[in-house]
UniProtKB/TrEMBL annotation:
Residues 207-466 form the YjeF C-terminal domain. (6S)-NADPHX binds at residues 52-56, 116-122, 144, 242, 296, 341, 408. This is Bifunctional NAD(P)H-hydrate repair enzyme. Homotetramer. AMP binds at residues 378-382, 407. Keywords: ATP-binding, Isomerase, Lyase, Metal-binding, Multifunctional enzyme, NAD, NADP, Nucleotide-binding, Potassium.
C-alpha cells in the first residue's frame, strides 16, 4: 500500500489543495446515487472517522444533499472531523446526527468512512457497534475499503465493516481481493483519480484479455506432442473418481494427449477412451511434457519420486503433498507447482488451518519461499505466486467450487497448460481462471449446486468465453 500512498502524495503535490479528495468524493457520490436509484428524498447516513476517508464521505454527502437527499453525519471523533468536508455538508443542507441509532435505523444507505487504508487492527467498540447497526438496517457502501480490514494483506483482526459495495480510488487494494477481507467488500467499483502507478504491482488479477493472450493455441502444423502431453498419476482402488476427474480436466485443458498411470485405468477409459493408459511406473509410461500427481492416490506414494526425478514441470496436489519435503523440491531443475487447499497448506507449514485462512497472502508467500516452488493456494480467492514477484489472485472464484473433486479437475487443467509450455505461475493463474469460469457457467445465472464433473464439462465454454 505504500506504492499507492506515494502516488497519492505525488499527485497531491501537483494539484490544488483538496482537488484529489474532490475527485474521490465525486466518484463516491455517483456510486451512491446509482445504488439508491432515486436520490431525491432518500435518507443517507455517513459514518465519519477522523481521516481522509471521513472527508471523502462528507464531501460525497454534500453532493448527495444538493441533489435532494437527507444526509446525516455520525461523527466518531467530532473534534477531529474533516473541517472542510463538514462545512460543505452543512452548506448543502446536511446535518450532524444527534441520535445515531435513530438515523441509522431510518437510512436508505449508510456510507462507511470510519477508517482508511492506514487503519490497523479492528474497529473500536463504538465504531463496531455503529457498523453492526448499519449492516442490520440498510445497504452499506465502504469508502476505499471496509473499515477494520487490513489493506495490505486482506487480514481481519477484530471487528470490521461488512459492506454491500466498496468504492475504491486509484487502484484495487490487496485487502479488497483476498479473503477474509474480500467477502466483506461486496461489489467493487474503481474510481480513477489520476494516480500514476508502477508497471509491476504487488498483486495482480488477470482479466479476460490477459488470459486470452496467455492461452496456448494449436498452429496448423501442430501434432499432439507439439500441443503437449500431460502425464496424470491419480486415483486408487478407493478413489478411482479422482483419476477420472483429473484426466477430464487435462483433456479439456488443451493438452494434445493425456497419459494416465495408476490403478483406475478401466474407469478412465470407460469415460475417456482417448486416454493413453499405462500400469506404471511413470518413468516407463512414455514421453510427457508435464506430470500431475496426487489426486486420490492415498498412501501410494511410490510414484512420487519417479515423477520428481523427471526433467519436466510437475504439479503436486492432494495426497502427493503429504510426502514432499522442501529439500527434495529444491533439488529439482524443472518447475514445481504445488496446489494445496488451506488445510494442506497448514500441514506443509506446520500450523493450524485457521491461521492459514486468516493470513492467506502471507501463507502462500511463505510456502513458495520455503519450497522454492510456485504455489497455488486454493480457496474462494485462489492465490498463485513464486518465491518472489507479484502474487496473482484469481477473480473468477465462486463458492460453488467447494465441492468434492473440483480440485482434481483444476490439477488436470493446470497440468495440461504446463505441458503446453506455460510457466508455472501462468499455468496456475490461467487454470484457476478457466476453472472458476466453468464453475460459474455450471451453476447458472441464479446459482445452483454443481458437481466437479459438471465443472469439467464446462471448461470448453470457459475457453470460448475468454477467446471470443
Amino acid at each position: 500500500m505504500e506504492t499507492v500512498r506515494a502516488a497519492e502524495r505525488e499527485l497531491m503535490a501537483r494539484l490544488p489543495g483538496g482537488a484529489l479528495m474532490q475527485r474521490a468524493a465525486a466518484g463516491l457520490a455517483v456510486a451512491c446515487g446509482e445504488l439508491l436509484g432515486k436520490v431525491y428524498g432518500s435518507r443517507v447516513v455517513l459514518l465519519v472517522g477522523s481521516g481522509d476517508n471521513g472527508g471523502d464521505a462528507l464531501y460525497a454527502g454534500a453532493r448527495l444533499a444538493r441533489r435532494g437527499a437527507g444526509v446525516a453525519a455520525v461523527l466518531l471523533s467530532p473534534e477531529r472531523a474533516h473541517q472542510g468536508g463538514l462545512a460543505a455538508l452543512r452548506a448543502a443542507g446536511g446535518r450532524v446526527s444527534d441520535d445515531a441509532p435513530r438515523d441509522i435505523g431510518r437510512a436508505d444507505l449508510v456510507v462507511d468512512g470510519i477508517v482508511g487504508i492506514g487503519g490497523r487492527g479492528g474497529l473500536r467498540p463504538e465504531a463496531a457497534q455503529l457498523a453492526r447497526a448499519a449492516w442490520e438496517s440498510a445497504p452499506v457502501v465502504a469508502v476505499d475499503l471496509p473499515s477494520g480490514v487490513d489493506a495490505d494483506s486482506g487480514e481481519v483482526h477484530g471487528d470490521a465493516v461488512w459492506a454491500d459495495a466498496t468504492v475504491t480510488f486509484g487502484a484495487y487494494k490487496p485487502g479488497l481481493l483476498i479473503d477474509p477481507a474480500r467477502e466483506r467488500a461486496g461489489a467493487l467499483r474503481l474510481v480513477d483519480i489520476g494516480l500514476t502507478l508502477p508497471q509491476e504491482a504487488e498483486l495482480e488479477a488477470l482479466q479476460h484479455a490477459d488470459v486470452a493472450e496467455l492461452l496456448p493455441r494449436p498452429a496448423p502444423e501442430s501434432d499432439k506432442y507439439r500441443r503437449g502431453v500431460v502425464g496424470v498419476v491419480a486415483g486408487s482402488a478407493r478413489y478411482p473418481g479422482a483419476a477420472v476427474l483429473a484426466v477430464a480436466g487435462a483433456l479439456r485443458g488443451g493438452a494434445g494427449a493425456v497419459r494416465y498411470v495408476g490403478p483406475a485405468a478401466d474407469a478412465v477409459l470407460a469415460r475417456f477412451p482417448e486416454t493413453l493408459v499405462h500400469p506404471g511406473p511413470p518413468d516407463k509410461a512414455g514421453r510427457v511434457q508435464s506430470w500431475v500427481i496426487g489426486p486420490g492416490i492415498g498412501d501410494e506414494a511410490d510414484a512420487l519420486e519417479d515423477v520428481l526425478a523427471a526433467d519436466v514441470p510437475v504439479l503436486v496436489d492432494a495426497d502427493g503433498l503429504r510426502f514432499l519435503t522442501p529439500e527434495r523440491v529444491r533439488e529439482r531443475t524443472a518447475e514445481t507447482l504445488l496446489t494445496p487447499h488451506a488445510g494442506e497448506a497448514a500441514a506443509l507449514l506446520g500450523r493450524g488451518r485457521e491461521e492459514v485462512e486468516a493470513a492467506r497472502l502471507a501463507s502462500v508467500r511463505e510456502l513458495a519461499a520455503r519450497y522454492g516452488a510456485t504455489v497455488l493456494l486454493k480457496g474462494s480467492t485462489t492465490l498463485v505466486t513464486e518465491a518472489d514477484g507479484p502474487v496473482r489472485v484469481n477473480p473468477t472464484g465462486t463458492g460453488w467450487l467447494a465441492t468434492a473433486g473440483s480440485g482434481d479437475v483444476l490439477s488436470g487443467v493446470t497440468g495440461s497448460l504446463l505441458a503446453a509450455g506455460l510457466p508455472a505461475r501462468d499455468a496456475g493463474s490461467v487454470g484457476a481462471y478457466l476453472h472458476g469460469l466453468a464453475a460459474r457457467r455450471a451453476a447458472g445465472p441464479d446459482g445452483a449446486p454443481v458437481l466437479a464433473s459438471e465443472v469439467a464439462a464446462h471448461l470448453g465454454a470457459a475457453w470460448r468465453d475468454v477467446t471470443h
